[in-house]
Fold these 2 entries.
Entry 1:
Amino acid sequence: MLVLACTHLSLASLFSTYTTLPLYLKDADKWQIGLAVGSLGLAGMFTRPLAGLWADRYGRKRFMVIGAGISALCLAAYPLSNDPYLLLPLRMVNGAGAVLFATAAFATVADIVPADRRGVAFGYLAMMNSLPQVYAPWLGLTIARTWGFTPYFLTAAAVSGLAFVLSSRIGVGRGGARTAEGFSATALVSRSTLLPASLFLSLTVAFGAIQALLPLMAEDRGLGNPGLFFVMYGVVVVPLRPVVGAVADRYSRAVVFLPGLVVGGLGMLLLANASVQAMMLAAAVLFGLGFAGAHTALLALTADRAGSEQRGLAMSTFGLAWDTGSGLGAMAFGLMAGFVSYGAVFAVAGALPLAASMLFVVGSRLPRRGAPDIAGAS
């Protein structure tokens, strides 16, 4: 419960900056605003492999506390200047702190929850990740417009500071620090996580296409406010997480993530052919159902396949699928949209999770030596 509360508070303070920071920097050039805002994700992508390695070597709790503390200090420093060049390094440090916290938090849950309850546990943890996206951007902007940016940033810092305090009260669980080993590039990646991360990557790449191109397609086709897609997506994803997690615990991970990949792909195909707003919203429901199921079950599978001393590294490797998929997906499909229609772009994005599900089924039927039956993992 403490990990869930800390995660919710940490992400609420972070997600609230999505609407406030661009307005705080509104006097700067558009590319400068984009650079300052996006630098948080860039820093997180490079920090994540190290975050997993450090959490394994030096302990989970330590980096939950450090990550929450870094975020609180950075948010408290934002009001000192609205110069994008001064905020850029501060934003990057903020991103590094957020990744340190999140990686350690996910590894902590894997440590303290029994294997037969990991699905539902990660369902609740993922719900705590998704819920702040529904209200935090609106609430942060409301505070900033009502009382000003400085009170808003200090409030966000206090929320992250509360996560810092609560993190210090979390037990270390069964997982603990391991002896430091020699550093190498391979030490930054969990091989056991490559399969679930690759499957999840097929969905995150599709999500990158949605982030980059849905507003443009909605305007081009007269589908109405594209923000409704994300609202409908959130309404589906948030309450569904613990449910699909419980199903993954009772039956198997594959029983949940395989249909999730298929339904997510079908949602993208429906979106590719959307001609009215109702079709766009129906696509949001399908994609939300698929994403919630696949992400939750694949998280549990990642914990299943990782040893107790490498769960931090496993979670960081899995998280890289989100970092790289959403970023590269937005870039690649943005380039593709310059040559083909929006419908064709979303159709290709929808084909990826469908292909991933078929490849998994075919691969699981091939004879393997010494490989675990991951389709039946509980």
Entry 2:
Amino acid sequence: MKALVIAGGLPQIELIKQLKDRGIEALLADGSPNAVARPYCDKFFHVDVFDMEAIKNIAIKEKVDFLITVCADQVLLVVAKVSEVLGLPCYIDYETCQNVSDKIRMKRIFKANGIPTTDYVETDHLDMDVIGKLNYPLVVKPVDAYSSKGVRKAENLEELKQYYEEAHKISRSGGVIVEEFFAGDEISVDAFVVNGKAHVLNVTNSEKVKDKDRFVIFRGRYPVKASEAVMRQIEEICQKIADGFGLVNAPLLVQLLHNGDKVSVLEFCARTGGNMKYLLIKYASGVDVIGATIDITLGKEPDLSKKTKSYHVVVNDFIYCQPGVFDHFEGFEELEKEGIINEFHPVRIKGTEMRGVTSSSDRIAGMNIVADSIEQYNEKLRQINNTVKVMDAEGNDIMRHDLLPELK
């Protein structure tokens, strides 16, 4: 068999490895010639991953048996559409994929199915007669962006106008959603729908940079800090999403906020969590969601059994930098060999210009840390913070060490 993997980020490395372990030839298409997954594939295509015609032509020419991606909701649209046109297997059809990838469509279905979410308006221009019905603060989002790009919180009309224009430029369709802000702690839910039944696999806290108007995640942590009432609502919400969106076999990533026992769903995707999320799930619950995604793509019932030891504390910490030109890492590999860092994964190459922290795509690396207690995790973190550096071309440590606070 032959598979065409779309997008070549960190999770696609694991995807490609597992495809090849199954005896499947793995081709890779990515918009960057320096895609981190490129060294692992059997054949590479440098192409815009959102160019459906180009992706379709590659699939035809190479006579692939299926297309696949993980951890990328906008790319999933391309996979679903091309698969549908060519009659190739895919776990989600294009119409459903549009519903789960477009934030306006998603909000409509949330409201129609009693899924708790904030009030919003959908508009293709800054219509204050409509937006004026909402209460500040307001959150502005491009309807079809990713990695928190263009998501800003506006406290007043002046900020609203500025952020709306920014979101409008970022959105490929030009669509923007404006919604009321819900104050609370963010929770990330990883689930899998099997034969229409939603199974919650892992629930974690998402910690974000304390910025007045941006929402950039710097850490995912397990176990989650949430009440039993919130956990019960999470189970109900996942099933409502599966029912409301007509999902039969699919991964789910649900992002929500909670304030006490009150919950508001931000959004969800019919995909596995991005970047290193598959590692957090693997070490917290023992389940291999990458393998399960391959299973459902091939029409098999996904294997949700535990495949690895689960730990009491599992944390994905993301490394960000001050602005500068990246040169090299120091200390990470040594601590990984010692077992202080469970896994370390760089996602940028030497010479990359780092812009600071504006969205999740500004990460330069990530590390997974496992521990038997919060105290043990904090002890490891102190050793990491005192040892590692991210050096720029001029010999300066530009790493944001302040974004590695100890757990409480």
